[in-house]
Amino acid sequence: MDLEALLQNMTNMRDLHLALVNISSSVPQSLANFSSLTSLSLSFCNLNGEFPNSIFHLPKIQVIDLSGNKFLTRFLTEFPYGSPLKQLQLSRTRFSGKLPSSIGNLKALNVLNLYLDQNQLNGPLDFQNVSSNLKSPELGGNKLIELFPRPIANLSELYGLV
Predict the structure, then answer these.
(1) How many CA atoms lie within 13 A of 55 on its CB side?
(2) Residue-range domain boundaries for the chain
(3) Considering the entire predicted model, what is its pTM?
């Protein structure tokens, strides 16, 4: 399936859910022009290449689920202040590099899944700066340090840590 051709005239789309559809291509940069997009679910689609960082900056994006795309790569970008992102699911991808400190800008974040299968994220993740709505972050297998430099009492919704 050619994802770019499929999306070519759909720039006003709000939700794009193609989970488990065998796309076997890269994510088109043009997806960053979908300023109305609130939810992007492309899990287990056999995506490859570099994910466009500009998608993380879409003004209304609340859900990004790219899980299970073991050939999808990227270094994470800085997250914009005031981002409405609530769910970030990158497990079993090849995202790598330092986790940006600006993850603390995601004040609405309640689902964070960075579980390692292929991820190689590293650096500090200071729970003091992440959303107090975070429920059960999945971080296992990454090289994250300083998970608890200060008490995590501000995570009032936390019910598990993987």
Answers:
(1) 23
(2) 3-145
(3) 0.82
